[in-house]
Amino acid sequence: MADKKFGAYICKGCGIGERLNANQLASVATKEGKMAFAKQHDFLCNSEGVAMIQADINAGEVNHLMIAGCSKRAKMEAFNFDNVVMSRANLREGVIWVRPDTDEAKETTQEMANDYIRMACAEVRYMNLPSSSNEQNLTGHLLVVGGGITGLTSALEAAKAGYNVTLVEKSDKLGGVSGQLYKRIPNRAPFKDPQENSVVDLIAKVEANSKIKVYLSSIVAKTEGAPGRFKVEIAAESGPTTTETIGAIVQASGFKPYDANQLPHLGFGKSPDVVDQLGLELLAREANGGAIKRPSDGKEVKSVVFVQCAGQRGNKEGYLPYCSGHCCLTSVKQAMYFKDANPNIDTAIIYTDLRTPGAGGEDFYRSGQDKGVTFTKGKVSEVSPNGSNLAVKFKDLILDEEVNLETDLVVLATGMVPNSGVDIEAIPIAIEEVEGEPKKPVSDVIEFPVKGSVLNLDYRQGADMPQLVHGFTDSHFICFPYETRRTGIYAAGPVRRPMDGFQAMEDATGATLKAIQVIENSALGRAAHPRSGDLSYPKFRKEGCTQCKRCTVECPFGAINEDEKRYPFFNEARCRRCGICMGACPVRVISFENYSVETVGQAIKAVDIPDEFSEKPRILVLACENDAYPAIDMAGMNHIEYSAFVRIIPVRCLGSVNTIWITDALNSGYDGVMLMGCRKDGDYQCHFVKGSELAHIRTSKIDDTLKGLNLETERVQTLEVAITDIQRIPQLINEMAATIEKIGMSPFKF
Amino acid sequence: MTATEKYRNNFLQEVIANVEEGEWVRMCMQCGVCSGSCPLGPHWEHPPQEIFMMIRANKRQEVLSSSSMWYCTSCYNCIARCPRGLPITHIMHGLAHYGRKLGVAPKELPTIKFSMLFWENLVQKGRVNELKLGLRLYFMNGFMNGIKTALKMQKIGLGMFLTKRMTPMEMLGGHGCKDAKGLQAILKKAQQIEDAKTVKQG
Amino acid sequence: MPRQYSFYPGCSSQKGASSSNYQRSVETMCSVLDIQLNDIPDWNCCSASIGYSGGGELPRIALSARNLALSEQAHPDQDVVATCAACWLATREANERLQHDAQIMTETNQALAEAGLSVKANKKIRHMVEVLVEDIGYAEISSKVKKPLEGIKIAGYVGCQTNRPFGIAGESFENPVYLDNLIAALGADPVKNYEKKVSCCGGALAFSEPEKSQALIKDILQAAVDNGANMLVTPCPVCQMNTEVYQDQINQTYGTNFKIPVVYYSTLMDIAFGKSAKEAALDGQIIKAKQLEDLASK
Which of residues 254-273 of C touch B (CB under 8 A)? Predict the structure, then answer.
């Protein structure tokens, strides 16, 4: 961009003009904020106001705009100008709506507004127009790993949307676990009977589709690159390796059934008439609608007992702690195999909590009851062979009694174990630095394929995606369930969380759309998500770098590898533009064009700090723009008052907060600093997964700094807040103001 | 019951065939709202939730001979609250009736006696004679007990008499349908049809 | 032209029976509201809710079906109306099963044929309260009030069978408000959120299981007293009898001191309409409703 031309626009609408002295604001903008001009307008977001700004831009009079009025979260469509840089001073939600309209409050309210003008001016002076790195490249080609119902669906959906697909399946045929089922849980009204297994049709469609290329008996031996330019090696069991260029990846590696041999007390392994649910599917396929025969002696089964939660939902050694979600409905379906063939067969399902998720789950359960399936709330303690029968010992939890009953066949409803590949946190890739040796990139150290890996990622962080609880593959559960921490790679189906076939198909469709989103965005050099469309990108000043590796280690998305000289190597298309690397860098060499150590740092410094005896403290709030800042805006919309001494700056993620901002604030006389981010634990709400957690870790050491400065530790607080904390945040702010009043003003005022 | 008979469908099928609204028993989802809503719930040996489970556990004798259903006050709370819409009150009446008809219901329960007296009383004349019904109720446990109960209830009886809400004239015939014979013929025929529908067990 | 209904009085409403006072007060109420009740000729007992031991499903339905058949013959264009909760419930239940189950309809008609009758089950079966709420309306009732029941606090005890399983249209099972509205329409003060409004009094089991039932009745009375009620009002003969006549026995058993009148809504209305104590059947109260008597004699 040519020379920076600064201009301020001050809106007097929504009561701003009545509550504040606009002339004073304009004067602050031009004199202190160094704007070339400051135009006032009664209604800036109307078409005439917007046209005025656009005319100035067109005339070349301004390319760096400071707009003072409502929150930056408001009127985004109106104040949307191409090829200019813009900052917003929040005078409405942030000032007049949170302050009382009284004579006493007038002075502090005006001071608040003046400061927001100073801050927005400082910010825009240090902003630049972002330009993408031209790394982008369009590869509209999807890789699907896994040929079960999830992978087949993903491949077909992508092909339907016009993308080429490569599907890699490690076994010698398509269909996965779903392919082994006799029939399926119904997904159509009236949800009364098991439905034909449609996987056969899916397979046929995939095989017939010219856009889909299938590799059977093959694995992904190595994956390197970034969205839009992955290089994937596909290795066939028979030897040959093919390399393909891939835009995005869907990991549909599914699950394996829990090993029922771990359940001898439930008779598995002791009698062939104790089977797991897949075992029963096999018997049903053999019977093909006729009488199901038991494996031991081929006798027609006259009575069958289903044991729910076998080896799952318990804290016993070797048990899966979670619910696999489909097994109750699967048992209902399997009991119907018997009842539909012969209503006189006795079928009992022993459950502790019957869970029938999905639109038709309850109807299907009722249909099972209607067909005479007996549902018994109970806990099975033992299954053992007794002559030619099986003895089932359980406690009936409704009748509160121990029961011994005999039956022909027992089916154990065991759970799902995800095929997540290697646990990258359990097996860290340690690259020891050897004195005097040249530093090597990861790919030279790690031997691919890594044993047990699904994706074989040539990433600094490890060969597969991170795992959530219980070994399931990563997913942003709360906000973006189809997104993972590896941009351009999406987990779908039971590898992500337990689910049945129809849920897996939905999941596949969602993940495929995400994959398409990333392909299209990375082709334009834009962020895929959640800052979809963002062109800004971390720029890195190599000469200042100390190779401390914090950025490479702490980036939650594995965006940063190390180059052959051990400097960080940014993969633009993997980046989410959260700024966690910027917050991590101790020497502050990482910044975005429009969001940097300087833009925020200068805004902090721009605030007018009254002297120690003024009784006007200053509290800096760095608020996550995803949750905390909207909550503060909403507090404004609700006219919830808070202290006039607070100055709030939105940040992309609390993880982007560089501790220099805190130190600088304290050094320049702020009396308190509050950091507001999202919930950070296992049930995190951070958009960027680790940002809030990292911010908390980084600021946990701030106490030492404070003591070094001879300041009270209460002056800096790092808080977890939620977007719903509309009442709580003002309260926290007021509590901080009260604390400052108690401990006194900072001595660092100049 | 042997281990091979437990949790078999035999009794459930019998209930479906022979008990009023019995086909609903299989639809119970064991939430227990009925038991918690029953005004005399604490007095039930097996609250409705358990009765339904016992039927499905094939406990024929225990269900039909239970005193439980006879504590139903017909308040219909269970029906109003059952999330599965089971007509629980009717099922309880149906089970009670079926057990009484098979002769396995407990013989000495006051409610069974009262209920039988009520029915016999109404069949006689087509309308209930409250005085005769009341007196028979007092004496249903023998003469001495009857005197005691009658003494205890004396004051109430007097109150009812004084407010003309009970009259000794009832003893001399009292109210009734003109066509009591026709009514009896209707009931007899209805009973025949119902008996013919009952599926014989064993 | 008065509103006409095919009326099913029921056994306990007969002369010298336990709710004959209800019947008398209803007659007075109807004369004020221009309602004409035409008795179903030669009606029979419905078997209430306690006849099930002796009577199976079909015989019990046949009982109500006979009444319906007679009503259809005598008053083909009139809704069936009952004042007794059990009569209404049994008749409506039978009517619905006949409507929804073709086999029961056929079998019932086979039985009725023995007495030369047949049933179509094509009528609406209504409780008198429904007539008041839906056909007359609170406003009209209010307009007939000559002596507002000012200063009397009344607990509207709805009980079970006028409330469940059918209930009055538009009311909830857990907190029906029609009695409260009626009380207010008569100028009295309803107990708001009376906790025991829809609790069971033991019904017919008050006879066979007196101790267990009286424990329930005690709670119903206690809640009314605790809420400052001067009396209870009820739409059901069994509720009325159970909550009124056992108060002495309950006082003996529990050491309580209940002496609270329990009246029918119709009695309450008659007094408010300016009728005499006798017309309102206040002489039928075992526990005298003094406040109403005083008002009547003013």
Answer: none
**Who has greater pLDDT, B19 or C17?**
B19
Q: Give the residue carrying structure tokens 């034909």.
A: A196
Number of continuous H segments (helices) and E segments (strands) in chain C: 13, 8
Tell me the chain A residues in contact with residue B26 when contact means C-beta distances shorter than 8 Å: 369-370, 372, 374
Interface test mutation site (partner C, options B119, B136, B162, B175, max chain C beta carbons within 10 A): B119
Name which residue leads in pLDDT, B162 or A548: A548
| Cβ pair B110:C209 closer than 8 A | yes
How many helical (H) and strand (E) elements, i.e. helices and strands, does chain A have?
19, 31
DSSP tag of A248: E
What is the least distance, in Å, from the CA of A260 to any CA of chain B?
Answer: 25
3-state secondary structure of A400: coil
- Neighbouring C-beta atoms of residue A613, cutoff 10 Å: 8
Size of interface A-B (CB pairs under 8 A): 60
Domains for chain B: give ranges and CATH numbers: 10-106 (1.10.1060.10), 110-195 (no CATH)
Task: Write the DSSP assignment of A422-434 as a string of letters.
Answer: --TTTS----PPP
How far is it, in rounded angstroms, from Cα A491 to Cα A511?
A: 7
What dihedral do alpha carbons B115, B121, B122, B124 form, nearest 10°?
140
Give chain C positions within 8 Å (CB) of B183: 44, 63, 66, 115
Whether A554 shows a pLDDT value over 50: the answer reads: yes
**CA distances in angstroms from B54 to A45, B49, B62, B171, B202, listed in the order given:** 71, 9, 8, 45, 19
Residues in chain A with CB shorter than 8 Å from the CB of B57 are 374, 376, 396, 399, 403
Residue in B with minimal Cα distance to C196: B39
Please name each of the domains of chain C with its CATH number: 3-128 (1.20.1050.140), 139-297 (3.40.50.11810)
pLDDT at A438: 47
- Closest chain B CA to residue A343: B9
Please give, rounded to a whole number of angstroms, the shortest distance from the CA of B74 to a CA of chain A.
24
Q: What is the mean pLDDT of residues C263-273?
A: 98
Full 3-state SS string of B160-183: HHHCCCCCHHHHHCCCCCCCHHHH
pLDDT at A478 (0 to 100):
83
B7, B9, B26 ranked by CB distance to A376: nearest: B7
Distance from CA of B55 to the nearest CA of C (A): 20
Residue A436 backbone class (left: φ over 0; alpha: ψ -120 to 50; beta: rest)? left
Beta carbons within 10 angstroms of residue A447's beta carbon: 8
CB-nearest to B3 from A344, A346, A405 is A405
**In the structure, what pLDDT confidence band is assigned to residue B44 with cuts at 50, 70 and 90?**
very high
Q: How far is CA A512 from CA A2, A419, A628, in A?
A: 41, 19, 31
d(CA B73, CA A493): 52
Chain B residues with CB-CB distance to C49 below 8 A: 74, 93
* Partner-chain contact A406 B4, CB within 8 Å: yes
Q: Measuring CA to CA, which residue among A607, A609, A585 is closest to residue A659?
A: A585
**Interval A681-714: pLDDT, tens:** 888 999 999 999 999 999 998 888 888 888 999 9
Structural domains of chain A in order of their starting residue, each with its CATH number: 1-129 (3.40.50), 141-254+419-429+440-523 (3.50.50.60), 258-415 (3.50.50.60), 609-750 (3.40.50)
What is the per-residue pLDDT across C25-42, written as a single tens digit (0 to 9) for each? 999 999 999 999 999 999
pLDDT at C239: 96
